[in-house]
Amino acid sequence: MATVDTNTPHDALDLVNSQRKKGVEFVVMAILILCSLVAVLVTVGIVLSLIFEAYRFFERIPMTEFLFGTQWSPQTALRADQVAAEGAFGAVPLITGTLLISFIAMCVATPLGLMSAIYLSEYASKRFRDFVKPALEILAGIPTVVYGFFAALTVAPLLRSGGESVGLNVSSESALAAGLIMGMMIIPLISSLSDDVINSVPQAMRDASLGLGATHSETIRKVVLPSAIPGVAGALLLAASRAIGETMIVVMAAGLAANLTANPLEAVTTITAQIVALLTGDQEFDSAKTLSAFALGLLLFVVTLCLNIIALRIVRKYQEQYD
Amino acid sequence: MTDLISPSSQLKGRKSAETRFQWYGRGAIFVSLLFLVVMVGSILTKGVGAFGTTNVAIEVDLGPDAIDPANPADARFEKIVKDALKTQFPEAKKRKDRRMIYGLLSNDMGFELERFVEANPEAIGGTATVWFRASDDFDAVAKGAVDRSLPEDERRMSDKEIAWIDQLTEQGAVERTFNWSFFTNGDSREPELAGILSALMGSALTLLVCFCISFPVAILAAIYLEEFAPKNRFSDLIEVNINNLAAVPSIVFGLLGLSMFLNTFGMPRSSPLVGGLVLSLMTLPTIIIAARASLRAVPPSIREAALGMGASPVQATFHHVAPLALPGILTGTIVGMAQALGETAPLLMIGMVAFIVDVPDSILEPATALPVQIFLWADAPERAFVEKTSAAIIVLLLFLVTMNIIAILLRRKFEKRF
Asked: What's the pTM value of the predicted model, to 2 decimals?
């Protein structure tokens, strides 16, 4: 930093010191850059390991069968001549199951989360807000295994007996129970993200609408929400990606029956639940069965990554608009 | 809205629409909070029972026939307890009835008597009243969790067994105490003996590894990105990467751990080392984002003053900016650790789902973690495990609440407004 004059021996010492300082700084810088590269390395590691293992899977099972097959019954052959020795690896029932449960979750979480956010940011007094906002955030802090336990042991039997009393046959591992609880889990995600978005709508727009004689709710519905739509959409996409990747709730409450159905009262299974089922307790690593978990993982990673990138881009673009 | 000249006809409708809209908002908040209360409440009420345990006093004969005074360790303790039970309930003659009376006590009864004899060697040769742990079904009856009005075949306990239990209760031979063994035992197939110590230790070791890796790496990465990184595509790439990583499903990190740490690097399966590594990769983005926010909150005047006094940029950052941002970074770290403590899915992938009885004492031994223990118990068929699972959840939630309160207090105490 300082300019150094080398005329006196004292200054020469300073120069040595400052060069040593520069050496140290260089090392520090290198460490800093290395640490920030870790994040990139993790992403690369994820992509490489998923692609590598999935490639080994696609060597045995063609990709078209995996993506478009409607039968899912992975099994390892006991004998070489066994019928369907390699099992069936059509991921369609898993994809529809995942979408069904995520859809139910979004149907629960979108109105609740959005209305909570609107009320908190537009109507609530500061005291009410200071109390309710952290309380809603508790929902986000509860581990998902707790939700799974509650869904499987309390909600599912309740739905089953409730369905029986009106003459409906509800499976004990219904998509509805898992979806309902998952929806509850993502409420805080939607509400806090939409809260930020609604707050960043300029006050002048509200004032103009109110000044023209619109009521508060008309202002919200016709002015605030339309201008907040892109941000809200981003929030919903992030929530959807969270729902698709959620594991413990579906492992505990949704079960493993790969049914191709759109009936929320039946049991369905999801990509994440199958990954857990395929990889827990199984030690042999070369069968199509275990490798299929990585193909599913790759599918999951690609889908959630796309959703995240789109969502983050929308949110960011929207923020710039009003800044 | 359209007809502004004669609004009175519509005004009423518009006003009630306004009221309705507000009630939708209140309703949404109410439903969400109600759900929270119901879920936590149901787990609390289910789990509270597991913190107590039922003990039964049985008079055992430790005479010379049963225990050789010269060599007490060789005695068949389980048989002594069973004999004592037979004397207590002489009416149980049939083999089936005998099995029922043995089933009143936990499977550990032999060891319990052995421990008693070791602690009280003077009791050998006479009779002694020893407190035994009751079985899970006995415990349920003592707690009043068994509905006696149900027909016999729909209950876990027959009328006979309930009569025996009532008999013991009348004699004052049944007491309920705090279930310390829930905190000092490892996992067990028997609900009345199962405890969470091994899972707690596993979680602690895993978090330790996770903290030691993610904390320094995240701080250094945040410092680079916030203080030094030039504005170019490379920095953008890192930034986008971190944001995306924060939203990757946790199970994908588990797959990474399985294929990279276990299969490629050959690290020990089920160990807290691998668990901690995987969780640290997961918490990294959380801590980096929090650390960057708190570094950004340090005013530029601090930096400029340090630079003006002749400090190098690295010195200005490490001596002046980073210490001021530290409370915020710590808060973010605690929040990240709390997240890691509750994480289950990636640990399932790397095999931390084993049945672990022993308490792990190094990061290389097979271990399990508290949320995984909850998952395992939730799957167990015995009714009594429902209670145990709820109790383990209560413990987990207590830990999370404590961590979050510490984070909030830290933020309050050190928060500086510049």
From this structure: 0.88
